[in-house]
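Hi Y.,

Following your request, here is the sequence exactly as I used it, all 535 residues.
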Amino acid sequence: MHRSIILTFFVLLSLNSFGQNDSLSFQFAEANRYIESKDSIVQVKKNRIALLTDSLQHSNFEDRKNDEYKLLVKLTKEYEYFVYDSAFHYGNLALKTAYGLKDASNIAEAKSNISLILLLRGLYKETIDSIHTIDPMVLDQKKRIDFYSVAYRAYYDLSNSRWGYYAPKYREIGNSYVKKIVEEGDSDSFEYILALALKSQNSSASYDVQKYCTYLLNKNDLTAHQIAITNCILGISYLKLQEKEKAEYHLLKAVVGDIQSTTKETLAARVLAELLFHDGDLEKANKFISEAKKDADFYGSNVRQLEISFIRPDIDAAVLNKVEKEKRIISNISLIVSLLALLLIAFSFIIYRQIKELKKARKEILESNSNLRQLNDMLREVSKIKEEYVGYYFNFSSQFIEKMEGMKKAISRQLMTKQYDAIELELKNYSSKKERENLFEDFDRIFLKLFPDFINRFNLLFEEKDRLILKDTQCLNTDLRIFALIRLGINDNEKIASILNFSVNTIYTYKTKIKNRSLVQNDDFDQKIMAIKSV
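Below is the corresponding structure, written out as tokens. Let me know if you'd prefer a different format.
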């Protein structure tokens, strides 16, 4: 009574929360995400198996046959829902090793494992034959419950796959094994609740199926495989009740659980594909039936391949019909579009010349405007350069004339008084080098005022190691001064040499050396310099 109240509570909780937490669209997106990452998840499984097989091949089990048996059982379990051939191979090796150990418990366990593998393959007769050779009483409690689980599943599967006349008989035998689990198992274990859920499913007691499955899904200790099994059973239960949205929701959960647990002997994807097909969602149905087919082929499950063969041709045919219908619609649309295109061409031809003339006029206007803007920019820049340097020139000339006038007067007075030593001293105090340095300082100051970003832009034309680092950022060195003159429009090497007091060859050498170090072609270097804008 107490258990019934708890299970009912969990059913109500599940029904209340359905649709609030995870929408169907979210579950489809989640399933697609896992399908896309399926190969990487499978690779992790293969890596884990590779470690076990490597340990089996390279370990010496001569005196540790029990360890060898345990390792073979591990490999059998890894392949159990993954690849039939490998599971059967390692299951038989485990059984052979168990016989060698003469351990009745190990022999019964290995046979139980093989029985499940045969059942997953769809070999019902061989499964039943194997079950009949097993004495469950030699197994410990947990392994005995596992054996009962294989047995009731085998008979339930037989009852669902055979002619109705024999179904009640097989269902009754399956129920007897469920009864053993109820008598001997832990009432809160997954195997116990699952057995009751499957018994209810085979008895068409849908409410009990939902009650048991919902209780299991609210437990926190289930594996991904157990979650997939439970959601699949619950989804099929809702499907029988025609509650399609809930069925899709739980079947999608089951598909994700199968991928997470690398289960290839799957049912959920095929049932979901069939549901989607009958619901008219052919694209999704085709996607999930294809995934189910891949899994069935990968595992080697005869029964799943047979089940898929019943529904896949219908899905393929429906998809083909849809494609053909879309083709006809597209053909009709194409015809209409072609007629409209002809009309459009006719109208286009009429207005083509006008548009062409308009484009031509617009292009000419744009080019004219662009040229005017460039010309205005150049005139503004030239005007500013002239303003600065003409002002500087008159100021410098005035100061120089005053200086020369003062020197002339001083020398005249000294000549009249015959102060020849003073004249000599006066001449010595005058330094053309110093005057030239002052001239360069003034030139640099005015240039950097006009082109404050010149040094930075100049350095961008070189790699980091070749860039110029100046102690005084208000002065230019010879390299920069040469190209500063070029930026001002002085391109003649003779004029540059005269201004800077160098030979023409020296100027040529400087320019060549600088261009060879730059990141741009030598022919393009001067254009890059001219592209540096003034303020």
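The two ends are 91 Å apart (CA to CA).

Thanks again,
Q.
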